[in-house]
Amino acid sequence: MRLPSWRFIRMWQRNRDVFLRLWRSIAPGFIFEPIILLLALGLGFGHFMGVIDGQDYIYFIVPGVIASYVMTSATFECTYGAFFRMEYRRTYDSILATPLNIEDVVAGEIFWGATRSLVTATIILVVAALFQLLPSPWVLLVPVVAVLEGVMFASIGMVFVSLAPSIYSFNYYFTLFIAPITFFSGAFFPLDSFPEAVQVVSSIVPLTPAVELIRALVQGEFHPGLLLSLAYIVLLAGLFFFISMVAMRRRVID
């Protein structure tokens, strides 16, 4: 395995340029869907949930909506998007005829996925601010967590891309991995409401530390355990980043 070079930015720029040309057709998914979810769950379902951890339900789910859609943005970009570019458009074959190597391509994909996460988090933050759902100035650090989370889930997605035999394989990835961790990460329901065995599993799923960090920043409430959450995200992001380099080289080159 080689380390990616500075040329990975060229892959990032390629994806950015495509996004800027197509953003009008993409916008409804990454702008309006989280807004609808926030309002539907917060104002609709929240009427029945009442107060959670001393606050109205809509305040409780704002961090969960941010964290879950940050995950989804990076994951879609680095699963369906990356696989389509690799297998159907043969974009990778064309790029590898240039000075870029496969590690540059993968790194560019991952950091583009993180950029999409950053855009998504920023949009939801703006909407939440308009509805006065952000009580703490520490929310200004949420985009930093969004980028780290984006790198983590983009890297995990690229590892699965290296193993996927067809684009339909991602149905299993989303159904058996993304969907369960969305609901068992504390994003929409307090972890202490689950059975003890489920709480143990929930504590190690990748989305949980991101939810904890974003919730702390949104609410302005911190505790020492958040350092472990941050370290866990950085560890998983770094680990899967390098695994994706090795796995994608075997998939594309070897």
Task: Looking at this protein, list some descriptive labels.
about 250 residues; two-stranded antiparallel ribbon; globular; 9 helices
Quick rundown:
With 254 residues, the chain is mainly alpha-helical. It has helices spanning 8-49, 57-88, 91-95, 102-130, 142-163, 170-183, 196-202, 207-219, 225-252; strands at residues 51-52, 55-56.
Mean pLDDT: 91
Q: What is the spatial order of strands in the main beta sheet?
A: 1-2
Beta strand count? 2
Number of domains: 1
The share of residues in extended strands comes to under 5%
**Could you give a short account of the major beta sheet?**
2 strands, antiparallel
Rg result:
18 Å
Shape: globular
The computed structural class is mainly alpha
How many individual helices? Answer: 9
Helix and strand sequence: HEEHHHHHHHH
End-to-end distance:
11 Å
Q: Give start-end ranges of low-pLDDT stretches.
A: none
Helix content bin: over 70%
Detailed description of the structure:
By secondary structure, this protein is mainly alpha-helical. The protein has helices at 8-49, 57-88, 91-95, 102-130, 142-163, 170-183, 196-202, 207-219, 225-252; strands at 51-52, 55-56. A two-stranded antiparallel sheet has the order 1-2. β1 and β2 form a beta hairpin. α1 (8-49) runs antiparallel to α2 (57-88), α5 packs antiparallel against α8 (207-219) and α5 packs parallel to α9 (225-252). The model has no long low-confidence stretch (mean pLDDT 91).
